[in-house]
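Encode chain A's predicted structure.
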Amino acid sequence: MDFILRMKQRKEQIDEILNNLVIETPVHAKVLEAAMRHSLLAKGKRLRPILLLETLQLFGKHESMGMNFALALEMIHTFTLVHDDLPCMDDDDLRRGIPTCHKVFGENIALLAGDALVFSAYELMSKRRDDIDPAVGLACIEDISKALGAQGVIAGQVVDLLSEGKTASEEVLHFIHKHKTADLMVAALQVGARLGGADDDELQSLRHYGEHIGLAFQMTDDLLDIEGQKDVLGKPIGSDVKSKKMTYPVLLGLAETKSRAKTECLQAQEALKSINYLPISFLDDFSQYILARTY
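Encoded structure for chain A:
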């Protein structure tokens, strides 16, 4: 099947399930549900759940086995965006083509909506399924917890904030985006593979792949902040410059950033060669998609 069509179908599938997802809040706190759904149902790319489900299928398992984990990852990713947009962080007005959560509901409700998305995600992941060994399920939750917490996304966000307005080194920039961007992609791949019965070597290969595509994704994101179109991106162009953020183009220049992104994608493809007995064409195509994306 054509890769772009496959991505489109997966996104539509996940959008539909998220739209029908029941988010239970007390009658006196319905504003919380509205705030959660405002951000969760915005037009995201759904890359992390797509990566999880496609990896699971590489190992011959049915997508239903990993759906709760896939939805949970999207909820967790949305939490990171809601908090990232807050005035105390990046203070952004637009996300995914619509006003950010705090612009609609206020900073306090947005903060709590982000928190609630995380706990709702863990509730989903904790639901017992007969086709998932409880030990495997716990290992998947551990993968995601490490990717999100003090060793992962949040650590990357802390260093990102501390680096604003400073001349960061390439080592620091790499640290920020290895954790802030790549870690949840790695978690998606590893959870899909772990549910599928992958061995340690396969998990390691997919970890390396995820780290490289995560960095390539961030490099292209930084480039789009300079060269992209606001109507396509769904957020203002030049917000990183306005916030005095250290980005790859600022540190390396446009041409070198584009070259590095290509190198990261080639290294991602190289990481897959040890598991080439699996039908990995989707993951190969995904690395190329990152370089060509416009939003």
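The chain is about 70% helix and 0% strand.
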